[in-house]
Amino acid sequence: MNLISGTDITADALSAQKTRLDIVAQNIANAQTTRTPSGGPYQRQIVSFETELLKQTGGSSLETVRVSGITPDPTPGQQVYNPQHPDAGPDGMVTMPNVNLAYEMVDLITASRAYEANLSFAKDARTLAQKTLEIGK
Amino acid sequence: MLPIGSINPGLTALPLSRPEALTGSPAAGTDGITSAPGSSNGFGTMLDGLVNLVDEKQAAEQVTTQKVLLGNTDQLHQSVIAMQEASVALSLMVQVRNKLVESYQELMRMSV
Predict the structure, then answer these.
(1) What number of CA atoms fall less than 13 Å from residue A16's CA on the CB side?
(2) pLDDT, tens digit, 9 for 90 and up, residues A7-26
(3) Which string of DSSP letters, residue by residue, matches B22-77?
(4) Fewest beta carbons less than 10 Å away: which of A6, A102, A121, B77?
(5) Is residue B106 less than 8 Å (CB to CB) from chain A?
(6) Strand, coil or helix: A21
C-alpha cells in the first residue's frame, strides 16, 4: 500500500536520472582513456530511458520510467599526433576517446536539473499529504 | 442510564486495543472492560490495521536506510522517500487517535 501516490514513480525517475549522472561522470572521467579491456580508446556511453507500466492496487495505472539501455556512441574519436604515447600507432597517431566535454557538461546540467525537478515533486507530495492531514484539525 | 457499549459495541474495546497492538503483548482488558482481540469489530480491526501499516512502513524505512548506511546500495533517495512515507503514516495514525479521543471525550461529556 502506498500512502503518498506518485512517490514510486518519483523514486524510479530519481534512479534513472542518477544512472544518467553516473554515466556522465564515467564519460568525463574517461575523457583521456586510450586503452580499454576490449582494446581501443574509451567510447562515450549514452543512457536511454523507457516507460514501464506501474501496477497499482487502485486508481488509474501510471507509467514510470526506467533505463532501457546504456549504448556506446559510435562516433570515431579524434586522431592526435603523439609518437611518444604508448598507444600510438606506427604512424605516431593516437586515437582519443570520442568524449566531448562540452556535450558532457550539457548532459550533466540537464540530468541534475531533471533530478531536482523530481526531488521537488517528492517534497511537494509530502507537503500535500501533511496538509491533507490537517483537514481534521 | 445507557451504557456506551450499547450504542456502539466497538467503542468500549477501542481505548484498550490500541496499546495492546503497539506492544504486541496479549494484554487482557482491565477495569471490567473487555477488549475482543481477533473479533471482527470494525473500529478495533481498523485501528490494528493502521498500527500495522505504520509499523510496516517504519520497518521498510529501516531496511532501506540500513542498506544505504552499510554501503550496499547508493539509492539514497529511496531511503529518504521511505522515511517520508513512514512519517506521513505516523501522522495519519496520530490524527486518527486524536479524532477517537475527541469523540470519546465528547461521549463522556454527554449527559443522559
Answers:
(1) 23
(2) 888 999 999 999 999 999 99
(3) HH-S-PPP-TTPPP-TTS--HHHHHHHHHHHHHHHHHHHHHHHHHHHHHTS---HH
(4) A102
(5) no
(6) helix
- Say which residue the cell 450499547 belongs to: B6
Q: What's the CA gap between B65 and B71, in Å, rounded?
A: 10
Check CB contact of A2 with chain B, cutoff 8 Å. Answer: yes
Pairing type for strands A93-95 and A79-81 reads antiparallel
Which cell numbers hold the place of B82?
Answer: 521511505
List, for residues A62-120, the tens digit of each pLDDT value.
888 999 999 999 999 989 999 999 988 899 999 999 999 999 999 999 999 999 999 99
**Chain B residues closer than 8 Å to A119 by CB:** 77
| C-beta neighbour count of A45 within 10 angstroms | 17
